[in-house]
Design a protein that fits this description.
Helix content is 35%, strand content 27%. The chain is an alpha+beta fold. It has one domain: Glutamine Phosphoribosylpyrophosphate, subunit 1, domain 1 (4-Layer Sandwich), CATH 3.60.20. A hairpin with a 5-residue loop joins β3 and β4. The protein is globular and about 85 Å long.
C-alpha cells in the first residue's frame, strides 16, 4: 500500500509520500514515489505515484524518454499543467494496456497519480490522475489531494488545511497526516519524502528525506502524541462526573 498527498495553499505547494512497497508480508521494499521534473525559471512538475509498481516505474521512464527524445507531447512542450496531467493520464493508460496484454495471471496493473506544479507565471495547480486517465482538481474548500491509504491521514487535513495556512505549517500538517497513517497501517512506511515549493520560485524547493530514526521526524511524532493527550484531558466532562467529584468522602 501507499500514502501520498499534496496540499495547494496561497504561498505554494506541499508534496509528501512514503516509500514502502508491499508484494506480500515476506516481500517488502522501499522505492521513491516522488518524482520531479524541473526546468529552473520555466516550469516545475512533481509526480506522486500509487498502485502497481511496474506501471508507475514505466510511466516515469516514458515521461523521461519523451523529454530526452523531444517527442511531442512531453512535459517540456505542454502549455499548461492541465495539459500535462492529461498527457500523464494518456501515458498511464497506454502502459496499463501494454502490461495487461502480456499478463496471464489477472494482475491488477492500475496506478493513480498526483501531479502538480507551476508553469511560468500561471497559478500553481495539483491534479489527481485516475487509472482510467481522467483527472480532478483539488477543491477550494479542501485544497489537498490524497492517493493510496487515505483514511487515517484525512481527519487532520480536513480540520486544518485552508488556502491561507502558512506554507511551513501546511508541511508539518502533511507530516502529521503521514505519521498517523504509518502508525495505523504497516503497509505504509518510511522513508518519508517531503517537498515544499514556494509559489513563483520555479525551483526545486526544499526537499526532505526522513528516515525512521530521523531526529526531526521523531520529535514531531512525540510532540503530536503529547498534544493529543493534552487535548483529550481538556475536553469537557460529562455532567455526572462533576457530581461524582463533589460527592462527600465517607466518614
Amino acid at each position: 500500500m501507499t500514502y501520498c498527498l499534496s496540499i495547494n495553499v496561497d504561498r505554494g505547494l506541499i508534496f509528501c509520500s512514503d516509500s514502502r512497497t508491499n508484494a506480500g508480508m515476506d516481500n517488502i521494499g522501499s522505492y521513491s514515489k516522488m518524482h520531479t521534473f524541473i526546468w529552473p525559471g520555466d516550469r516545475v512538475f512533481v509526480l506522486l505515484s500509487a498502485g502497481n509498481l511496474a506501471t508507475t516505474q514505466a510511466v516515469v521512464k516514458k515521461l523521461n524518454h519523451d523529454i530526452d527524445q523531444t517527442l511531442v507531447p512531453n512535459l517540456l512542450s505542454v502549455g499548461s499543467i492541465s495539459e500535462a496531467a492529461d498527457y500523464v493520464g494518456m501515458i498511464s493508460t497506454q502502459i496499463q494496456r501494454q502490461q495487461a496484454t502480456r499478463d496471464t495471471a489477472n494482475t491488477n496493473f492500475e496506478a493513480t497519480f498526483i501531479f502538480g506544479g507551476q508553469l511560468g507565471t500561471a497559478t500553481p495547480e495539483t491534479f489527481m490522475v485516475y487509472p482510467q486517465g481522467n483527472y480532478i482538481h483539488e477543491s477550494s474548500e479542501h485544497p489537498f489531494l490524497q492517493i493510496g491509504e487515505t483514511k487515517y491521514g484525512k481527519p487532520i487535513l480536513d480540520r486544518t488545511i485552508k488556502r491561507e495556512i502558512d506554507l511551513e505549517r501546511a508541511a508539518r500538517v502533511a507530516l502529521v497526516s503521514m505519521n498517523s497513517t504509518i502508525r495505523s497501517n504497516v503497509t505504509v512506511g518510511p522513508p518519508v519524502e517531503l517537498l515544499i515549493y514556494e509559489r513563483d520560485s520555479l525551483s526545486g524547493g526544499r526537499r526532505l528525506f526522513l528516515t525512521d530514526d530521523d531526529p526531526f521526524a521523531h520529535e514531531l511524532s512525540e510532540r503530536w502524541n503529547k498534544g493529543l493527550i493534552l487535548a483529550l484531558e481538556s475536553l469537557p466532562v460529562f455532567s455526572w462526573e462533576d457530581k461524582l467529584d463533589k460527592k462527600p468522602s465517607p466518614s
